[in-house]
Specification:
345 residues, 2 domains, 19% strand, 10 strands, D-Maltodextrin-Binding Protein, domain 2, globular
């Protein structure tokens, strides 16, 4: 195969692909032409991509926010690409199982991954991973972002962030905040607030959002920085009280609930997010086609409405912007993980 110049990667630490080192003579070049003609179908394959169904691996069980967003995008992208995109749920180890499967897959565009905030947290949360969150993936673009909501049990005398702070300071035991598991974005949203506020807050991990929400409504724990799609129905039903959102903008569904930045914590902006990724080494032509299809999907009015119903906002952007964003998230969460002392095996 003729040598080519490596494309510099915007991912920190990502090694460029090795260029060929052989010096070809005229005779060798002639031989290469013959060899190239023999391998033409393989070289031309990306031009025809896709010619068969595409598998989209989700690192979580069906029904969660990641799965719901993935299925919405998958159906619409299949229509754009002319081949069905089939969701494959591979739950386990805070999405690491699914990530490892895709990292080891052939870089041909037929096995993709929903890369999330969890992967950027896992980069420092786990001392050892079976994949490299940076070097093993090519990001094609961001799908959507979902904020968290700081919710409390409505029986508590807490109606604002100021009340929350006063309650934590006046309580001998401090405030408890539940999460869907140690190291989750829900947990680390609470840890980030704890760092900024200096409050006495005790983390109570659960095996998923559902049991955590159940105990929060039952009064076994005081609060939670929960994903908006999970807690919003309970807020609207009066079973939970929302006192702040973690994004930089307010939620349209909760226009009277301020952001944490508005409540005095400048720069606080935490959202769960989802990106479309492929194994490292996937041809740039495939990445560009995925990005173009994703952009059309996210611009569709019915998709935007469905995302709004989920309290999500479409993200989009170029592959380079997605990679730069993920790299910044890895650095940000590394500092939070270190400060919180959280770890996983």
């Amino acid at each position: 195969m003729p040598a080519s110049s490596p494309r510099p990667s915007p991912w920190p630490g990502l090694r460029p692909q090795r260029a060929g080192r052989r010096l070809f003579t005229l005779a060798a070049l002639a031989g290469a032409v013959v060899l190239g003609s023999a391998t033409a179908p393989a070289a031309a394959q990306p031009e025809a991509w896709p010619t068969k169904p595409i598998r989209l691996v989700v690192g979580y069980a069906a029904g969660g926010a990641t799965d719901v967003v993935a299925r919405l995008v998958a159906v619409k992208m299949g229509e754009q690409l002319g081949q069905p995109m089939l969701v494959d749920n591979r739950a386990g180890a805070n999405s690491n199982l699914g990530a490892e499967i895709v990292a080891r897959a052939a870089p041909d565009g037929y096995t993709l991954y929903v890369y999330t905030i969890a992967n950027t947290i896992n980069a420092s949360l786990y001392p050892r991973l079976g994949y490299d969150p940076v070097k093993d993936f090519e990001l094609a673009g961001l799908m959507a972002k979902i904020p968290n909501i700081l919710v409390v049990n409505p029986k508590l005398p807490i109606r604002s962030v100021a009340d929350y702070v006063r309650y934590a300071k006046s309580s001998k035991e401090g405030l408890t905040f539940a999460s869907s598991g140690a190291g989750s974005s829900i947990h680390l949203s609470g840890e980030m607030f704890k760092m900024q506020s200096g409050l006495n807050m005790l983390h109570v991990p659960y095996k998923g959002s559902a049991p955590a929400i159940t105990d929060l409504m039952g009064g076994q724990v005081d609060s939670m920085f929960d994903n908006a799609p999970s807690s919003l129905p309970h807020v609207q039903a009066g079973k939970l009280r929302a006192i702040a959102v973690t994004s930089a903008q307010r939620l349209p569904q909760l226009p009277d609930v301020p952001t944490l930045a508005e409540a005095g914590y400048a720069g606080f902006d935490v959202q769960s997010w989802f990106a479309l990724a492929a194994p490292a080494g996937t041809p740039r032509l495939v990445i560009d086609r995925l990005n173009a299809a994703l952009a059309k999907v996210l611009a569709a009015p019915d998709v935007r409405q469905r995302l709004q119903d989920l309290a999500a906002t479409p993200a989009g952007g170029t592959p380079e912007q997605a990679r730069a964003f993920a790299a910044a998230e890895i650095q940000r969460w590394r500092e939070v993980v270190k400060a919180s002392g959280a770890s996983a095996q």
